[in-house]
Model the fold of this input.
Amino acid sequence: ELRRLLEENGLVTDPAAMYRVLRKLEDEGRAASFWGKSVAGPRRRLYRLTDKGLSDLGALVAAIRVTCDAHAAFLQAHEAYFRIEDQRRGRLSPQITCDCSLLQSA
Done:
């Protein structure tokens, strides 16, 4: 399910790398695994975030939001500067935007 969600959002994953990360998270106490029940086929190992993992994820999301906000502010300042400069020189300025809408809904 995690792999499907990542790929649906444009993040291509290598299954072997993903499982290495999951095992590392488990070793660090950020994730726990268990064997799920299977209706058909072999049982699958399932993972969930622990309280520590959820806390660390929250801190990471907060840091990403700060970085995204800083990038957006930089791009706005850059665009404003060049808009003024281009108007002064009689040229059209490029429109640069930063869309952090995915982070806003989290």
Notes: The two ends are 19 Å apart (CA to CA). The domain at 1-49 is CATH 1.10.10.10 (Arc Repressor Mutant, subunit A). The CA atoms of residues 13 and 74 lie 30 Å apart. The chain is about 60% helix and 10% strand.
